[in-house]
């Protein structure tokens, strides 16, 4: 649970009293009732386990313990006085005469009304509420939204009681970048899965990080491998990683969902080898199984998890609606980064996000709809892929948007993807996109989110032909003789 610090309380209070976004939700009751008939909100938003996570062996990190994790760059950041004043102005709780802030006067803004229709309600901003939604806010985010997200995380993840806080970000990618900047110095080792989301590699590239890729099977990252790799580094006196980046649900690209047992094992390794976990979970609402797998946040008894949530895949990718939940000392430094980088993420987008998360039932109902929508596509692509199953090993993903295929008999799919497939009008992503270095790769990632149903069979037929041709080419390639140099 988030410890209710003085600051946390003030935040919630501030959210209620000071930020004047009053959403005029003109909900058609009939529509709402029909869309929410069978929604069990608590069950849908259950990302915690009923089993205790307490482990006597490891103590929670305290404020000063985090110092060893900060990158040199992050440690140098200092608060901007102007940003502090903005936060203060939202906190004081009464009208103040201000000669302080560099805020524009809302009377010059040209907008008078904003209305957004959702499938079940109308979200309308006018007058003072609209002016506030177009104004500067504290770097952490819209106070009312921060309070709402705090409540949401507490309900959905039930994290162990420690001082934690939330920062609204411009999408999950922004969160990834901020975590890298917070924790990584040039040349540092960083743990990821063997194939990892392109965005983490893009963020790490300029840091020349040593990426320790841990292999996965159908249940995600293998803790025994992680343990043996870290144990070996320790024995050899190599620099130890401070950060593990992981996508626990519907991994991009492999589609795996890490089991509860493995999550617990990986968390225990974080405590034992002293690293922090960046849990990037944008596919958490797209879990097609009926298992309630606890998030790393929910297991975080020691304050080692920075959790990234994003609504990009289920609400809107363009809205950039996302947030980081992290131990307060880490979040404080992330806020300093935000002050220097963006001041804060878009207020209007945050006002819309607030509207969406405020009614859990409507939100759950929408997210269930999104999950069903993608679930049907997952099934359809599975049916289309069925004829390949005998020769091409793949698993139906338990969550997310991707099939991950190994193409046997083809050493490297690069040529196939960028030459022959394009020539035949099929776009594919090669596994290379998810590797931190250049090497031959046998994997392909297939996304089922947008392809038309009627195109699935023909896409798979073309893919089968391409693979057959590529396998033939590999067979026909003259083998190098052992005597050749
Ligand atoms: C695992 C993962 N993290 C982060 C992102 C970026 O998402 P956002 O739109 O929230 O920045 C993606 C997008 O594909 C993703 O797959």
Structural key phrases:
485 residues, alpha+beta, Aspartate Aminotransferase, domain 2, Aspartate Aminotransferase, domain 1, 2 domains, five-stranded mixed sheet, three-stranded antiparallel sheet, 16 helices, 15 strands, binds pyridoxal-5'-phosphate
Task: Walk me through what this model shows.
By secondary structure, this protein is of the alpha+beta class. It folds into two domains: 6-358, Aspartate Aminotransferase, domain 2, CATH 3.40.640.10; 371-476, Aspartate Aminotransferase, domain 1 (Alpha-Beta Complex), CATH 3.90.1150.10. The protein has helices spanning 6-17, 29-35, 41-44, 72-75, 81-91, 127-133, 143-157, 172-183, 198-204, 223-235, 260-273, 328-341, 347-358, 360-385, 414-423, 453-476, and strands at 24-25, 113-117, 122-126, 164-170, 189-193, 210-214, 216-217, 220-221, 243-246, 276-280, 305-310, 321-327, 402-406, 429-430, 443-447. A five-stranded mixed sheet has the order 4-12-11-10-9, with helices on both faces. Strands 1-3-2 form a three-stranded antiparallel sheet. Strands 13-15-14 form a three-stranded antiparallel sheet, with no helix packed on it. Strand 7 and strand 8 form a beta hairpin. The protein is globular. The chain starts with 5 loop residues before the first helix and ends in a 9-residue tail after the last helix. Bound molecules: pyridoxal-5'-phosphate. Pyridoxal-5'-phosphate binds next to helix 8.
């Amino acid at each position: 649970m988030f410890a209710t610090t003085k600051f946390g309380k003030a935040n919630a209070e501030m959210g209620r009293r000071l930020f004047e976004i009053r959403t005029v939700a003109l909900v058609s009751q009939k529509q709402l009732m029909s869309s929410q008939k069978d929604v069990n909100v608590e069950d849908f938003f259950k990302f915690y386990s009923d089993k205790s996570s307490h482990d006597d062996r490891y103590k929670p990190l305290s404020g000063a313990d985090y110092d060893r994790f900060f990158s040199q760059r992050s440690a140098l950041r200092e608060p901007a006085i102007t940003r502090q004043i903005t936060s203060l102005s939202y906190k004081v709780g009464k009208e103040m005469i201000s000669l302080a802030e560099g805020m524009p006067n809302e009377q010059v803004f040209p907008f008078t009304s904003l209305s957004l229709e959702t499938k079940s309600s109308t979200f309308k901003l006018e007058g003072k509420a609209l002016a506030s939604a177009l104004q500067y806010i504290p770097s952490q985010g819209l106070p009312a939204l921060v309070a709402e997200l705090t409540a949401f995380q507490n309900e959905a993840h039930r994290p162990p009681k420690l001082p934690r806080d939330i920062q609204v970000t411009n999408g999950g990618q922004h969160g990834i970048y901020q975590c890298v900047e917070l924790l990584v110095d040039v040349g540092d080792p960083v743990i990821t899965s063997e194939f990892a989301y392109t965005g983490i590699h893009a963020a790490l590239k300029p840091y020349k990080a040593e990426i320790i890729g841990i292999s996965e099977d159908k249940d995600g990252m293998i803790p025994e491998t992680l343990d043996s790799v870290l144990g070996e580094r320790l024995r050899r006196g190599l620099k130890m990683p401070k950060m593990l980046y992981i996508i626990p649900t519907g991994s991009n690209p492999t589609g795996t969902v890490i089991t509860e047992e493995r999550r617990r094992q990986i968390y225990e390794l974080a405590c034992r080898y002293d690293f922090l976990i960046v849990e990037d979970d944008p596919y958490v609402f797209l879990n097609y199984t009926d298992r309630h797998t606890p998030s790393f946040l929910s297991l975080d008894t020691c304050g080692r998890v920075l959790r990234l949530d994003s609504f990009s895949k289920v609400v809107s990718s363009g809205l950039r609606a996302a947030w980081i939940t992290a131990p307060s000392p880490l979040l404080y430094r992330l806020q300093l980064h935000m002050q220097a980088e963006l001041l804060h993420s878009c207020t209007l987008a945050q006002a819309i996000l607030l509207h969406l998360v405020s009614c859990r039932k409507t939100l759950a109902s929408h997210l269930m709809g999104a999950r069903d929508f993608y679930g049907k596509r997952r099934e359809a692509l599975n049916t289309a892929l069925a004829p390949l199953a005998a020769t091409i090993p793949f698993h139906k993903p338990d969550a997310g948007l991707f099939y991950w295929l190994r193409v046997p008999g083809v050493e490297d799919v690069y040529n196939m993807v960028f030459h022959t497939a394009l020539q035949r009008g099929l776009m594919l992503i090669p596994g290379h996109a998810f590797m931190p270095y250049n090497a031959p790769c046998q994997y392909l990632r297939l996304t089922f989110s947008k392809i038309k149903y009627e195109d699935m069979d023909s896409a798979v037929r073309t893919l089968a032909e391409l693979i057959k041709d590529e396998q033939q080419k590999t067979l026909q390639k003259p083998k190098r003789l052992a005597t050749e140099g």
